[in-house]
Amino acid sequence: QKNNSKSTANHEMAFKGQAVDSKTVLFNLLLCLVIFYSLFYMIGSVCFGAFRLKHFDGLIPFDFKTEPAESNSKYLVNLLSLELTYFCSGLLFAAVVRRRVWDYAFTVTLLHVMITSLVMLEFPTVWQWWLALGSGLFLMICNGQLIAYFACQSEQTYASFSIY
Fold first, then answer.
1. What ranges in 51-97 are assigned the alpha helix state H?
2. How far apart are CA 104 and CA 8, in angstroms?
3. Is the pLDDT of residue 157 over 80?
């Protein structure tokens, strides 16, 4: 009996954060996906206009097949759109989920890779695309976590990093 209560106390100490129900998590994930792809298309269309490209490609979030070259304007638009989308998404994710931005960032990125593979009917093997995706994910996590930390610093459960 005494050993069991000690184990329960340790378990409670390890998980001080509040439990979030799965409906809330799924709703937040859906909202993060909508934010991510809405931003991607908005930023992509602005970049297409800024680079004066003639044809707006609706596959911009999923295009990993464009020849990676500095002289290729379409590649630069795709790259810039990807990085700016990840940068801005992290900021907005922090406003939506308020904690564990890193978790939503990883999940959205994983879903993005799966959706990209389905849309393009091919798994992305271009290392430049993966490098851009990884650096974008890093930006998203850093920005989102910093904003969430400073915005929610007064909340008791966020003040310590023990919930991570």
1. 73-97
2. 29
3. no
